[in-house]
What does this fold into?
Amino acid sequence: MKVAIIGSGGREHMILKKIKHNPKITQLFVIPGNAGMQQEATCVPLDITRNEEVLGFALEQKLDFVIVSPDNPLVGGMVDVLEEAGIACFGPRQNGAILEGSKIFAKDFMKRHAIPTAQYWTFSSTQEAIEFLHQASFPIVIKADGLAFGKGVIIAQTLQEGVKCLKEMMEEEIFGESGKQVVIEEFLEGKEASILAFCDGKNIAPMISSMDYKKALDGDQGLNTGGMGCIAPNPYYTKEIAQKCMETIFLPTLKGLQSENRDFRGCLYFGLMLTKEGPKVIEYNCRFGDPETQTILPLLKSDLFEIMLKVSKRELRTEDVIFEEKASCCVVLASSGYPKDFEVGHPITYPSSFEICFAGVKEKDHHLINSGGRVLSVTSIASTLQEARQESYQKISQIDFKNRYYRTDIGKDIEEQQ
Ligand code: AMP
Ligand code: GLY
It folds into this structure.
């Protein structure tokens, strides 16, 4: 089979590593991919925000299967365009991806299907939103409706902060169209858990739980990022909570999608807050998470590509998805300054025997250089979290480039409790 993965981050590199040895695959492309993937697949520099460009390539190459991984093309209907031209895909159709594409849609969907989530109010007028804040209690959460590179969520501690944020989103349009409408929601307290699930529209199979470290700096300080590291399993996500999530969140979401004729064949990501009143949904994503994917896929015993084919054909069975009962720790190496300004262009050195998931890298004079905020990640799996952490940090210390930065405390809080 001729197969393509759409995307260029560490998440896509891990998907590539997991499927590249499947004997059914005769040729593997990554569109656009990055310089760190070139030895494992053919990278094709297309603009993945243009469905027609990708469709043209897929028809010309007679691709058999396309894994559409990032949010933008999914929300933009790439799967619809490819499947209507007869090319099978892993990834939801546009009417399923809207669970991530519009936060207002997601909140209304949860309300329609009685899925537990934070109380919320939606606004398209700045004035009305500001008036609302005057009688609200703080902290309160303000979210841009559309996609905003993972930066569209602000936890406002005071009225002044809230008003500033509303003006920036709705009037100055710092997130463009995405922030013209906002959701204001109740601040939830608890531990967070990321649960990714394979979903074929008929069945849902949750993967091993994980915990993402979103803040830039040690001790959960600094700005929100795409994710600086991650561990699995998530120790707060007990069997009882998993059961409760299945009953109150996962199955109702699946039934809701079915009853609204929304075609979701891909990875459905539940961002959960484990509150005192029970688990609640903070957000849906219509895709694998980054760096959750780099953390959990090394623990997947079943063949990822076979699962993806089954998902696409609506033949998924929960028993097809088996994970090792081990611990995993992923640490992200970033360019210092991320998620704000950072320097690029520094050569990266690393032992060639390491399995590394590359993200923000380019090639210059036959050498990889950093070209983005999150540059690469390493993952280790072991019998205990402590061993997995040690191994990942040992590896990270041997990877070097000027102005590199990483958090030193991924999983440390959990290890100290165990
Ligand atoms: P999101 O992009 O929706 O995942 O939000 C980013 C982060 O903001 C989440 O991982 C949470 O840490 C935080 N967050 C979002 N919504 C809420 C909420 N209602 N209460 C508390 N924290 C939240
Ligand atoms: N790590 C969070 C996300 O992928 O959305």
Remarks:
- The mean pLDDT is 97.
